Amino acid sequence: MYRCKICSRLYDNYVKYCDCGGSDFEKIVPEPEKTDFADSAKKLVSWIIFILCILGAVVVWFI
Ligand SMILES: [Zn+2]
After folding, report:
1. What values do phi and psi take at 25, rounded to 5?
2. Does 42 share its domain with 26?
């Protein structure tokens, strides 16, 4: 992503000139989706706990 330093317009690909006539661009690195990863990790952990609980209940039931 490139952002025009003059009008802050965003471009997905590098362009030589902005619509406003500016040629000064600042490269923007998209932020990694850490929150999504944390959410899926939390879901995975809760699923593992859930399955362990069921397994524990089954084991207790068989004993
Ligand atoms: Zn511009």
Report:
1. -120, 150
2. no
Distance (Å) from CA 53 to ligand 1 centroid: 57
Q: Say whether both 50 and 37 belong to one domain.
A: yes
> How remote is the CA of residue 18 from the centroid of ligand 1, in Å?
5
How many domains does the chain divide into?
A: 2
Contacts of 24 (CB under 8 A, 6+ apart): 4, 5, 6
How far apart are the C-alpha atoms of 23 and 30, rounded to whole Å? 21
**The pLDDT value given to residue 37:** 73
For residue 42, the CA-to-ligand 1 centroid distance in Å is 41
Compute the average pLDDT of residues 14-18.
92
